[in-house]
Every structure is written in C-alpha cells, then in structure tokens.
Amino acid sequence: MKIRSPRYHREVAQRYRLEAAQTESGKIFFPPRVAYPGGETAKPVVLKDTGKVLTFTVIHTPPAEYSDLSPYGLGIIETDCGARLLAQIVDCDVEKIEIGMRVKFEFRRMRTEGDEGLLCYGYKVVPE
Amino acid sequence: MQDVGIVGYGAYIPRYRIKVESIASVWGNDPENYKRGLQLREKSVPGHDQDTITLSVEAARYALKRAGVNPERLGCVYVGSESHPYAVKPTGTILSEAIGATPECHTADFEFACKAGTEAMYVCYAQVKAGLVEIGLGIGADTSQGAPGDALEYSASAGAAAYIFGTENILARVDETYAYMTDTPDFWRREHQHYPQHAGRFTGDPAYFKHTLGAAKGIMKKTGMTPEDFDYAVFHQPNGKFPMAAGKKLGFPREKIETGWLVPWLGNTYSGASPLGLSAVLDVAEPGNKILMVSFGSGAGSDAFVFTVQDPILKVRDLAPKTRPQLDENKIYLDYGRYAKFRGKILRNS
C-alpha cells in the first residue's frame, strides 16, 4: 500500500520530532488535537526521547510490508514525560524485551515503498 | 578576525557488526590476509531500517545536545555522502526537518566519494567565517556498499559524524584549512550501478597517498607546523594500513594516530570515516591540543583541517554518547546471511 505525499507530509512533525500538546491540567496528547476534553487549551510540547516499555507483544506474522523484520517487538512505550505511544522495538533480541525495559527513541526508516515510491521515516525505540 | 570552530559534535555508529571471518568463509578467502594485510577485524552494518538519513539525524541530535543551541538557529545544513537514499530528493531536507532546523535554512547534499563529509564541514565553516550564517551543521555519513566477494566488502561500513560550526563557546577552533585535488580515476560508480568499481593497487600511491600526503604537507607548510606540533592526527581510513602508512611517511608516531584510528573495528565509513576519527579524538583531547585532520575522496582529493581544542569541550563532551563506547559496546553480530538480507544483496521477487 502506498502512502500519499499529503498524508505523509501532514504527519512529519509527530513522526520526525515527536511534537505533542499538553493541556493546562498537564495531560499530554500525541498527536495534538483540534479541541481538548472539557474545553481545555493546550500548548505545544516535544515528547522526551527516553522512556520504558509499558507492555509489548512480539509479532511473528507481520503484514507483508514488514515481513523482513519478523519477528519484531511492538510495544506501548511510556515516555519519561508520561505520554504513551505505540512503537516498534528494534536493535535487540525479541527474547530480551521485557516490561519496564528502558528504551530511547531513534529516527528510523519505517517503510520503503518498493523501488520507486517514498521512503517513509519516523520513530522506533531501541534499548537505552 | 573572529575565531570560528566546532561548537558541537556528535557521532553515531549502528549496533550491528560482521566479522571478517564471516565474510571470508563465504568467499573461500583466508581471513588472516585481511586481518594482517589490511588490518580489518570487523565492520559496522546499518540495520535494515537505517540509512544515511537516519544515521545523520542521530549524529546531528547528539551534536545539538553538545552545542546546546536551538536548531532553528542553524543557517545551513550540509550532508556529505555517497549513499544518499534518494537519487532525487535531498537528504538534507529530511534531516533538517527531523532536527527542527526548517524553514530558514540553506541545505545541500554533497558528493565526493569518501571526501563528501569534510566537504560539508569545509563549506559550513566557510559560511560561518564569511558571516553569512551564525551557526551551521556539516555532516559526513554513509552506508557504503561493497560488491559481494570484492575486497571492498570487508571494509564498506556505516556511520555518521556531525559538526556544528559557530563563533561562541568553541570546542575546537579551526586554525587553518587546505584542499588538494586532481582528476584521478581510482574509484567510481556509474549511474544506476549498485556497487562501485576500483582500480586495485592504483587506489594507493597515485590516489590515497598522493592526495593525503599532499594535503597534509600543504597545510603544514601553510601554518608553519611540523608533526611534532600536533597531539593527534586523523587520516581517512579505507583500511587499517593506509592511515598508519600515511602517518609514518609524514613523520607522525603511531600513538598520535591511534586515537582516531577506528577502522579495524568500524570498517570504512566512507564520508563518515575521518569525521568519526575526529569525534573519537574530541572525546578525549585536552584544551590546547592541536589536531590535524586529512580526509580523502576518490576521484580524487583531500581536505585538511588544523584544530586547537578549547576549554568548553570539558563541559560538553559527556552530554551525548561518545564514539569509542558506541564502537566497543552493545554490539550485535550478524552472520553473512542476515548481513546479505540487511544490505539488500539477495535477489528476490518484488
């Protein structure tokens, strides 16, 4: 499946730079929204690039475009600023992934659209 | 004239490695030939999701941590590589976006075989010195390719080093620069070819040594310095033997070269090679130390720099991962099969 340039471009701030928003009550939204619960306003923040594995699974039967990576870890990562997001866990043996494991975000190529399409970049996590 | 120098630096080396033995066993070669003759033991391999852009971004982020500057202040971002992932679409745009340097930023991708990294640094330094930009970023990065079974396969590796140049809180002042270049067909890759060609032994004396020694002698003449005046020397390192031989011919003792001599464990990171050697030196150098750096790119030419290390380096060098620990720790060894898969060397159905 090919991603369209406008969509890819629209998500760059989040996928490249982890740009999020924090409401007055301290809640972090990633990606930022147009409106926030309770009518709160939010200011732009950048997520901390370190965190820990909150929970994870190991994918043995991936979608076709990720088949080369099998098996790979996919986890919910809690950043050190408290945001939770889904990320691939790479550069480690899947047997060694565990809940609570310290990780850091790195810039990686997420997808390659054959020999002709876009190269899509974003974040994954690696053991710290 | 206001001093200009390195105000931030960062190195990034992927975690994957392949040993010379693993490559030699596939092609029926004697690994001792490469270990003794070319002084290569293992090399870094980019992960399947890493390329020149991702390596550059990580190195640039480390450089920004050490520089402590807002990336929006970067007036120029230059990346030198011979493995830019796109044929048409600049590496620098994705890199600049990822580090938050856009949109008021002059960006260009450089190519000059293994010299592209120091070219990026050279032009970046010149921009700052000319007063056209306040601070700028120059990067050397590569995920270099060697054809399966070719001697280059034992050395072609991956890594990146990023340098921010500026005028405030200088970590290493640029004292002088010098460039030396001729038309020498020692190594090339034509459009649409996967792997480069090289002219065997012609890559030695008429290419690497002529230009490396020419640039080193040229900058020493320009500055009135001799090998005794330097504490460290970093040369382009296509294998373990060449930089040591170049140093010996110039009169540098082995111990002045060893700190920036990463190639036996790292391989040849092409555009990243001499910049990574420099980052390993900056990790340990003391204020007042003088560093000579000479790159080499086939085709062929060399850029030379003389740096003097400054006091602020002591305060910032621990703010980001250092070069040598990235090389020596957390390694993941690949067998040839996984290496071939990672590097896209296996023919497959699309």
Protein architecture, described:
The complex is a heterodimer of chains A (128) and B (350). In chain A, the strands form 2 sheets. In chain A, strands 6-5-4-7-8 form a 5-stranded antiparallel β-sheet. The longest helix of chain A has 6 residues, at 5-10. Chain A has 2 helices and 8 strands. Chain A is globular, with a radius of gyration of 16 Å. Helices cover 9% and strands 44% of the residues of chain A. Chain A has one domain (5-127). Chain A is mostly beta strands and 128 residues long. In chain A, strand 5 (72-79) and strand 6 (84-89) form a beta hairpin. Chain B has a 9-stranded mixed β-sheet with strand order 5-4-6-7-1-8-13-12-11, with helices on both faces. A 3-stranded mixed β-sheet of chain B has the order 3-2-14. A two-stranded antiparallel ribbon of chain B has the order 9-10. Chain B has 350 residues and is an alpha/beta fold. Chain B contains 13 helices and 14 strands. In chain B, helix 6 packs across helix 7 (241-250). The mean pLDDT of chain B is 97. Helices cover 34% and strands 24% of the residues of chain B. Chain B folds into 2 domains: 5-171 and 317-342, Thiolase/Chalcone synthase (Peroxisomal Thiolase, Chain A, domain 1); 174-309, 3-Layer(aba) Sandwich (Peroxisomal Thiolase, Chain A, domain 1). Chain A binds chain B through residues 12, 16-17, 68-69, 90-92, 106-110, 114-115, 119, 121, 124, 126-127, and chain B through 15-16, 47-51, 53-54, 57-58, 61, 85-86, 94, 97-98, 100, 330, 332, 341, 350.
CATH second-level architecture of the largest domain in chain B: 3-Layer(aba) Sandwich
Q: What spatial form of chain A do the alpha-carbon principal axes imply?
A: globular
Described by its quaternary structure, the protein is heterodimer
Sketch the major β-sheet of chain A. Answer: 5 strands, antiparallel
User: What's the helical proportion of residues of chain B?
Assistant: 25-40%
Under CATH at level 1, the class of the largest domain in chain B stands as: Alpha Beta
Along the chain, the helix and strand elements of chain A come as HHEEEEEEEE
Q: What is the fold named in CATH at topology level of the largest domain in chain B? A: Peroxisomal Thiolase, Chain A, domain 1
Number of strands of chain A: 8
Largest sheet of chain B: 9 strands, mixed
Counted by DSSP, the helix tally of chain B is: 13
Portion in strands of chain A: 35-45%
Number of individual domains of chain A: 1
Chain pair sharing the greatest interface: A-B, 20 and 22 residues
- Structural class of the secondary structure composition of chain A? mainly beta
Distance between the amino and carboxyl termini of chain A: 32 Å
Helix count from the secondary structure assignment of chain A: 2
Structural class of chain B: alpha/beta
Report the end-to-end length of chain B measured between terminal Cα atoms: 58 Å
